[in-house]
Amino acid sequence: MVKATKHRHRGRFPPPSSMLWVRNLRRYIGSGAGLGSEALMELETKRILLDIFKEKQQKSAEAGTIPSFYKKKQSDLLLNADDLDAMWVCLRENCVIDDATGAEKMNYEDFCHIASVCTEQIGPKCRRFFSPSNFMKFEKDESGRIAILPFYLYVMRTVSLTQARIDMSELDEDSDGFLQSHEMEAYIRGLIPNLAQLRDMPTAFIQMYCRIAAHKFFFFCDPHRRGKACIKKILLSNCLQELMELHQESEEEVTDTEQAENWFSLTSAQRICAFDEHVRSGKSGGNNAREMDFESFLDFVLALENKDTPEGLTYLFRCLDLHGRGFLTTADIHTLFRDVHQKWIEGGNYELCIEDVRDEIWDMVKPADPLRITLADLLACKQGGTVASMLIDVRGFWAHDNRENLLQEEEEPEEE
């Protein structure tokens, strides 16, 4: 048995042979077994929204009018930042340290004790996280213990998603489970003061920032371009996670490169605006000569930056499908690569045969129909983003042509 050290000596850790609770615990899981944090978040959200609806009905019956602050009281049903801090302290003070790994862990007896302490200090709203079914979700060691960090991160994620779900539902004017662009922009605007990397944003830039930020959600969560995005899809998207990363203090925790790569960072939004302005000023005839509006420009940038995603590749395929037939032929590849080939030669690179490039693309994609490449073929081959880069950007083709050298350069620092 691996030795363990108590943070506070509340009794010795029982030997594995005495842990009948590890087996007996499964009897008490019940219908909650197998529910992931997203499902639990959805159930909790429905419960809170139902409470809001009942309170709304009651107030309407009693007074005929609803105070605008009634929804704020529902925040008492969720853990706030202070509650989460208190829970973390409780977890650390009542766990055991695995001497072999240094990981902070707890068994089910610790889990129940922490639940009691948290309920005393925080209140009954934290009790639902300490259910037997929740304990059984996490990976256990040979002694039946789980690490406290994954559990705490699970609590934070569930609380964050539930709060976001409630906030978005309050902005959903027609209560159809979808947000329109102005509603999504309002949600983002409300987050800005709470995001460390955005709270000092110039006031004059906030409206433009919200427009840029909301557009990424619709690019990925509204694939059919209906003008509204499903709230559930937004909550489970990588976009929301990327936005929430801006909680980190930029000066200490985030590098300039990471800021630039995050679409939702202030640096990225300002870069996009500056580039758009540069393109606009570079066109003859002023703004009237522009070939795409700002929203279309954002779509184009998002597609280029996310070529390996189904959404990005779908957008780029529509651009490559010059005749709108839903497929590319060998003649299309020849036409598309012609300009890249010219730039390649002008850059002083070696002469290459377009037919060889065409054959290489066919070998990469392995289309179901040997005479044509479809979007489904590009998605299935897992190299669609690379193929698109080869056809639209000489730098993309150069990166593919030098992929072995680039890979070797990336590995060299690790060998030193």
From TrEMBL:
Protein name in the entry: Serine/threonine-protein phosphatase 2A regulatory subunit B'' subunit TON2
Cytoplasm listed as a keyword: yes
Keywords: Calcium, Cytoplasm
Any one GO CC term of the record: spindle
Gene3D superfamilies assigned: EF-hand
Location of the protein in the cell: Cytoplasm
Keyword Protein transport: no
InterPro entries in alphabetical order: EF-hand-dom_pair, EF_Hand_1_Ca_BS, PPP2R3C
A single GO BP: microtubule cytoskeleton organization
Signal peptide feature range: none
PROSITE patterns cross-referenced by the UniProt entry: EF_HAND_1
